[in-house]
Amino acid sequence: MNSAADDLRINAIRFLAVDAVQKANSGHPGMPLGAAATAYALWTRHLRFNPKDPAWFDRDRFILSAGHGSALLYALLHLTGYDLSIADLQAFRQLGSKTPGHPEYHHTQGVEVTTGPLGQGFANAVGFAIAEAHLGAVYNAATSIVDHHTYVMCGDGDLMEGISSEAASLAGHLGLGKLIVLYDDNKVSLAGSTELTFTEDIRERFEAYGWQTIEVGPDESNDVDAIDRAIALAKSETSQPTLIAIRSTIGYGSPEAGTFKTHGEPLGKNMEATRAALHWDYPPFTVPDEPAAFFAAVGAKGASLQAEWQSRYDAWKAADATLAAQFERARDGKLPAELPWPTFTAENGSVATRDAGGTVMNAIAAALPELVGGSADLDPSTKTYLKAGGDFSVGNYAGRNIHFGVREHGMAAAMNGIALHGGLLPFGATFFNFLDYCKPAVRLAALNKIREIFIFTHDSVFLGEDGPTHQPIEQLAMLRATPNVIDLRPADALETLEAWKVAIAPATGPSVLVLSRQKLPFLGERNAEVSRGAYVLHDPDGPIDLILIATGSEVSLAVDAAKLLAQRGTRARVVSMPSWKLFDLQDAAYHDRILPSDIKARMSIEAGATIGWSKYVGDRGIAYGLDHFGTSAPAAQIANEYGFTPKHIADVAVGMLANV
Ligand SMILES: Cc1ncc(C[n+]2csc(CCOP(=O)(O)OP(=O)(O)O)c2C)c(N)n1
Ligand SMILES: [Mg+2]
After folding, report:
1. 241 alpha carbon to ligand 2 midpoint, in Å?
2. Which pLDDT belongs to residue 507?
3. Residue 558 and residue 383: Cα distance in Å, rounded?
4. Is 161 a known active-site residue?
């Protein structure tokens, strides 16, 4: 049984949330009404946070995976003293407000990660917990400076999404004991009862993954002490993640409680009845004095929690200034002044860019300890294993190679969590075609403006025999169309090195390295200006007749075609364009220097979808690519079949010249 004070405070959360939804005439009241007691127990009795310093490094992380319940989170942030006013709540879902429809990382203090696409927050949380475990193993010494929990609130929808299975399986395997999921088990989702869709035994499912599971029954779902006990039990289990299933009632208090009708519509005509049922006699957006003072005190406790940590931190820092300097540099997202970059010369011969990438990563790894990551069971192929890094595993959380298993989506979402936790720079690798298996998380990395590195190898039909199921066609176009993503498709080992320099730099979104399976010739010692997106690789003697623009493995093909053209008396410039996004960021003068506006005969060459290339080749030019699926055959046969040969390219270019 709750005290009257507890009930009043829980109602304060509930009604701030539903009043915000009502005023916006848009949003989701059901989840906040049903899950407020859970949130209350967690936030007032367990969560360690400091509203006055939302970036306190050792705070517990709270992730609302059920992002549609944003009003619940905003109510908690307001009440506990974050920078979120009643006016902000009243501006819920309005243009430019701090209270967007779903929680957005860059908009609202206290929001750890943007959520809304169901399942993502759950999988992000696994990354947060990985980061905590790794940093603790690396940096904690006599004193622990990284020692906190990752809490998630999720709903049925999160656990229905496939990504939660990947992430939960990984978390169980890795024994992430400080990960605690509060599952709002209300047996209703947007369109109806879960009887329609979702009837497996969730606890058995999670136990099979290696989780501890706890249930808070229907009679206890608003009982603060019962929820409190469950959380305490979850914390006491340190070798397994915990799922607490709280058998709650969606829309609690509303005449339509327990039905999907409360999920995503303002209470409207049911508002008065809901207020009456929960004995809430206050006008909209009113917080009575006692709850206001109570929540303020809970928030204020954060300052002393942080101060206590700070004194431990100071002692830790004094004991090992070098380690502390490394920690703080990585925490602040800064790079070392110098890194031991490898060099590539003609003597290296032909090198697949995936191999060059592996060489670069391994060369800088020791000097860049924040670089952690892995692949979706492909590192022998993606060449992304850090040879001296050790494996992140139970008993060795200091390991830097994370074996994500065949779980691309879970991998990418976990990377987002690792990056947003702070202190680390994650990478993740798979075949380029399997970008499709992690696209939703890549998109959120872009929306969150996360600095992290995706490494996609086997980047075109020239991967050969595995055939069209594995050969990417439309993936480059998709990445280039995604805001904030930096596309990088280097042409040789030297460009791969330069691409890595771009990728680790503090950026406004993820970098994507698109690398070849096949060997590519060294294109000469030069200033490979990957950071400017495109540069002139080769210029003919005398005035330019036409420009060949190519990316990645097609750049050497363009060079060979230019040589053939020269023999025929046609003077071709070759532009290597490893990144559209970076080129587009350059000024008009640079654009005109690389692609002079008076030269209309321009041909792009790329073994992928041609959509978008017209912006560089213009309406007189030709975009040469692949607007169909590939085929299973050795790469040389594929090149012949699709006309990716110097002779054919030269012929097409000459034909273009005739028509300009
Ligand atoms: C990937 C994805 N698919 C669909 C939706 C749309 N959607 C938002 S909430 C929801 C139902 C979620 O059900 P549940 O998690 O049980 O939340 P509850 O209704 O209990 O609040 C759906 C389908 C979404 N946000 N993300
Ligand atoms: Mg539900």
Report:
1. 21
2. 77
3. 27
4. no
